[in-house]
Predict the 3D structure of the following.
Amino acid sequence: MNTIWIMTKNNLKLLWRRKVMIIIALVGMIATTAAVANAFHTLLDKADDAQGFKLGYTVVQGSKYELVIDTLMDELEKEDIVTQKYSSADADKLIESGEQDVFVTFDKDSYSIVGSEKKSVETRVIQYSLFNVERNMNAFMSGGLKSVEVKESELPTTKTPDAENYYCHAFICCFLSISPIFLSVIYYEDRKNRIWQRYKTGKAGSVSVYLGKYLASFITTMVVFPLLGTLAFCLLFDMKPCNLLIYGGLLALAGLGFTSFGILFFILFKQPAVSIGSMFMILWFVSYLGGVYETYIYCSIPETIKRLSPLYYLNRSLIELSVNGKSDYAIPCVIIMIAMTVVFSAVGMIATKVKKEV
Amino acid sequence: MNDTVVKLDGLIKKYDNRPVVDGLSLEIKEGEIFGLLGPNGAGKSTTMNMICSLLKPTAGNIEVYGMDIKKDINKIKPLIGYIPQELAIYGNLKAWENVELFTSLYDIKGKELKGAIDEALDFVGLSEKRSSFAKTFSGGMKRRLNIACALGHKPKLLIFDEPTVGIDPQSRNFILEKIKAINKMGTTVIYTSHYMEEVEAICSKVAIMDNGKIVACGTKDELKNMVRKNPDEEVSLEQVFLTLTGKKLRDYVEG
């Protein structure tokens, strides 16, 4: 224990004496979050403007949507969307003339939406609302729901997502996952000066050497991102973390899991540049699938693929806990992080023992 | 009483079926400063790496203080102090932190550890610079710190792999004097160097290696007598070395 403590302590000194690296990481995280949250805000501003547009629609006789159409239009009216029913109409002409911004034709079993080019956001709002109605109706038809309801909460215009809160959480998770990169300075020095020879000739085993680096990296990660990062985000962006104990616990587990994952790259590859490059590449995809960068392409990725990313569970857990106070993703997240820690740590310790250079 | 510190018996190390150390047998006695000489690629570093357990032999046996390195490696490790040719120190750690880190690898803690740090730094003359970062040191000071890092756990056998490369004569002289001093305190020393005058100045016994084998082994006088043509002829260790290993240039690729 004494050896592990002294190794951890000195590795921490080696990490924290590279202040520039830590400052760049912290500032980088804040700047990226600010930039992305700002871009998202612009989109939200457009969505806000969307309130108050004109929606025309027709419903053919015998359409399955007749059941819900009145409720749906009532809810949309509450959001300042002016709706107008037509018995028959040429949607393109109405849009072209500016009489309507969006037009929906409800056929027997399907619907089509036409929107003006300038009102693409409004068109997406209607598309999303109808998607939810359709989903509820399908569940109703198959006996999954007792009645068809169109809830206000299902309309995206009724609730403005807090972009800062979302991206603060997402980027803390993202940067936390790549934080073992800090260790590159130690591994680089170990190999350049062949310091590993001292560890191999010493009595301390490979487990001690591994843990000395692991703990130093984990502590640094926790201080820089969950602690300083959260503090900065709370002050700068009014981030609202959930219960601090749960928030800290989930991030600590994630820190353990991603540290053990990241160290593997430094053990397996001799060149730190190769380790950093390959780690970055994999973690970029993990972050992408985890929902750190919300793009239109991301929306089209199947849910089963997204679920392959550990960050998918972590992001959703933290954000849902922050907004709703509960999340179904929390338990899977805990299990995945513990599994990552156990598996990758075991592989890391074995690799440290087997490899010539520790 | 058995005073053998290191016994190598038929030691072989092969890389890609190419023998780098080829059936080496050798005994190093307690209290000796044993010089291991040889041209580049002769197998000196490979031999020392095997004694330090950095490399596993392909065949043969190594005994240190009568213990088999394959079976008793954990008992042997605290008895050996290895000073690598490279400056195996962290520039961003202070002198005392470097010694602390590498001494702690031998389960030394608390007051004993503090005492060991002070003693090691004092021995290499770096007490006053204990709180300075290693990266600010001159080449000679770094070499001395490199040695101090291997002294903290008070090994009975010290292995020096070319410890005076690239330093000024004053620092070299200081290091050689310290090696003699530590030997007088009872520590056995294995020393490799390309500087013949160093080996001549401090070693009590010398082995010359070439192509993975010992070509000659004995006291300095015994070796000189091997090439001396008449009893009055002045012979240097360098002449012995060149006579036994030849004057052909040796270029080699590590590993």
